[in-house]
Amino acid sequence: MSARSTMSIHHRQARAAWMFLAPGLLLLTIFTAWPLLRTVYLSLTDYNLLTPPEWVGLDNYRELLADPQVMNAFGNTLLYAVVVTPVTIGLAMLFALALNERFFARTLVRTAVFVPFVVSLAVISIAFRFLLDPNYGLVTHWLSAIGLAPQQGALAQPHTAMAAVMLVGVWKNVGFYMVMFLAGLQSIPRELYEAAQLDGTSRLQRFRAVTLPLLSNQTMLVSILAATASFQVFDQIKVMTNGGPAMSTETLVVLVNRVGINNLEFGYGSAVSVILLVLILILSLAQYLYFGRRQVRY
Amino acid sequence: MAQRTAVRSRGLDHGLQQAWKIALTIAMVAIGLVMVFPIVWSFFTAFKPNSEAASASPTLLPQTWTLENFVEIWSAIPFAQLYGNTILFAGVVMVLSLTFDTMAGYALARFEFRGRTAAFIAIIVMLMIPYQAVIIPLYDLVHSLGLGQSMAGMIIPRTANAFGVFFMRQFFLALPRNLEEAARIDGANEWKIFTRVMLPLTTPALLTLGLFHFQFNWNDLLWPLVMSNNIAGATLPAGLALFAGQHVVEYGLLMAGSVLALIPLILFFLLIQRTFVAGIATTGLK
Fold first, then answer.
1. Is B104 in contact with A24 (Cβ distance < 8 A)?
2. A64: phi > 0 → left, psi -120 to 50 → alpha, else beta; which?
3. Given an 8 Å threshold on Cβ–Cβ distance, is B28 in contact with A260?
4. N or C, which end of chain B is more exposed by having fewer CB within 10 Å?
5. Domain hosting residue A28, numbered range
C-alpha cells in the first residue's frame, strides 16, 4: 500500500473518530467542564443572579474560614465520610464473601441486598423518617419495647440523627459494592484456591494471600466510589432531618443548596463548593497514588 | 488406627461444615430481611387506613386493608403530572445519554487518532466531578439559556455522561480486535460498521448502563428540586419530598405515593437483573 493511501485512511479514521466523539464531548464540556471553571471564578465574586458578578478576590474564602456554619458542615461531611465509607466497604466485602458460598436462598438474598441501590433514596427516606417518628414510628416502638427509645425520636437528637442518616447511607449503597466485589471474586481462578488448599493453608490465610490481593482492583474502585459518594451525601439528610437538629447533620452539599441556591448567594455558595471539589480532588489523588502501586495482575 | 482417626476427623469436619452452612444461611437471610424491611413496610403501610398508619401502637401488617390511599394520592398532589415528568426526564436522558456515551466510548476504544489520550484524560477528570459541586453555575447556565423551570432545562445537561463514556470505552476495548477490519475491507462506511457490526454486540453493556442512567435520574433529588419551584414541575422524589415536608401526618397517603414511585424501578431491575450483574462483571468495573 502506498504511503499516500495509508495517510488518507488514517485521515478518514481520525475524522470518523471525532464525529463519534464530538456530541458527547461537547455536551460534557458545556455542562461539566465549563461549570467547573465557573465555580472557581464565581467563588471569587459577589453574585446573586440579579446583578452581574462583582469581583471580590478572596473575600468569600476569608469569610468562609471564620463562618461557624461552614466549619460545621465541613466537620459533619468528614465525620459522615470517615464512618460511612469504611463501614460500607467492609460490609460489602463481607456480604460478597458470604454470598459467594452456596446456601439455601442465596439468589434471593443477593437480590434483597442489592435492591436498596435501585430504589430512590429520597423516596425511601420518607419511610425511614416515619419509622423513626417519635409517636407513630414502628422502629421507635420496637426500640422502646427494649428500653432504647430516644426521647422525642431518634431524629430529634444530634448524635442519633447523625447515626440514622449514616445507617441509611450504608443501607443504600452496600449492595452495589457487594455486586462489584462478587464479580471480582468470581473472576479469581479456582486453581489458585485449590493450589493454596493443597499447601494446607487455612481459610483466613487463603483470604489474605489469594482473595484480598486479587480483589485490589475492585477495592480501589469501590473505595473511590464509596468515598466520593459519602462527600456528596444529600438526599436522606434533606428528607429525614433537613440538616437539623441544630445543624448537626448539615453537610457541605446541604449547605451549598441552602446558602447558594435558596438564599441566592451564588458567590459564597461557589466558594463552599470549591471546598467540596478540593476534598474530592485530594481523595482521588491519594487513592490513585496508594492503590496505583499495589495493583495486582494475573 | 491412624486411618480411623482420619476418617473420624473428616466426619467431624463435615459436621462443622454443615453447622457453618446453617449459621451462614440464617445470618444472610436475616440480613436480607433487614435490607428489604423499609420497602416492605412502605408497601404494607400504603394499605393502612390513616388512623392505623398514624397509630400510637404501630404494627407491621395492616389490620384493615384499604385502597383509599392509592385513590387519594392522585388528587392530593398532581401525582399524574409528577409521574409524567419523571418518565420524561429519566426516559429521554437515558436514551440520549446512551447514544452519545456509546458513540464517544466507541471512538476512544476503537480508533487511533491525534488527541485521543487528551480526550480520554478529559473524560476521566470530568468523571470525578460530582454535579453537586458545580450546581450553582449549572443552575445559572440553564437559567441564562432561558431554560429555567422547564423539563428541557432539567434534561439537556444530563444528555452525556462521563461515567457512561468511560464504561462503554472499557466494554469496546474488551471486544476482539479484528471485528471491524473485515467490514472495512468490504468497504462499509464507519457509521454502518458502528450500527450494524458493533452495536448488536453491546446489548448487555447498554442494558447495564441504561439501568444506571434510568435509576440515577428517576431517583435524583437535588437537581429536580433545584430546577422546579413547585410540586407540579418536579419529579417523583422531589415532589414527594416537598409534599412530605408539608403534610407530616398523612403517612398512608405518602407511602402509597412512594410505593407507586418505587415499583417501576424494582420491576425494571428484576427483569434485567442477570444482564445487569453480568454487565458489571464484564465491563470496566473489573
1. yes
2. alpha
3. no
4. N
5. 3-42
Does A122 contact B241 at a Cβ distance shorter than 8 Å? yes
Q: Which residues contact A184 (CB under 8 A, 6 or more apart)?
A: A96, A214, A215, A217, A218, B286
In a domain, A50, yes or no: no
CA distance B1 to chain A (A): 22
A29 lies in the same domain as A103: no
Residues B93-105 have a mean pLDDT of: 97
Q: How high is the ipTM of this complex?
A: 0.88
CB pairs under 8 A between A and B: 295
Residue A201 has pLDDT above 90, yes or no: no
For residue A3, pLDDT over 80 is answered with: no
Buried b (16+ CB within 10 A) or exposed e, A135-145: ebbbbbbebee
Distance CA B8, CA A19 (A): 71
The reported pLDDT for the residue numbered A13 is 86
Distance of residue A271 Cα from the nearest chain B Cα, in angstroms: 10
Q: Which residue has the higher pLDDT, A210 or A76?
A: A76
Q: Chain A within 8 Å of B231 (Cβ-Cβ)? A: no
Contact A119 B266 (CB under 8 A): yes
pLDDT digit string, tens, across residues B222-251: 999 999 878 888 999 999 999 888 866 788
pLDDT at B7: 52
CATH code for the domain of A78: 1.10.3720.10
B113 shares contact with chain A (CB less than 8 Å): yes
- The whole-angstrom separation of Cα B138 and Cα A36 is 9
Is A118 among the domain residues? yes
A127, B42: Cβ pair inside 8 Å?
Answer: yes
Are A31 and B59 in contact (CB < 8 Å)? no
Q: What is the mean pLDDT of residues A228-245?
A: 93
- Tell me which of 1.20.120.450, 1.20.80.10, 1.10.510.10, 1.10.3720.10 is the CATH number of domain B73-282: 1.10.3720.10
| Number of domains chain A contains | 2
Contacts of A239 in chain B (CB under 8 A): 221, 241, 244
Rounded Cα distance between A181 and B72, Å, is 43
Q: Comparing C-alpha atoms, which of A185, A210, A6 is closest to residue A98?
A: A185
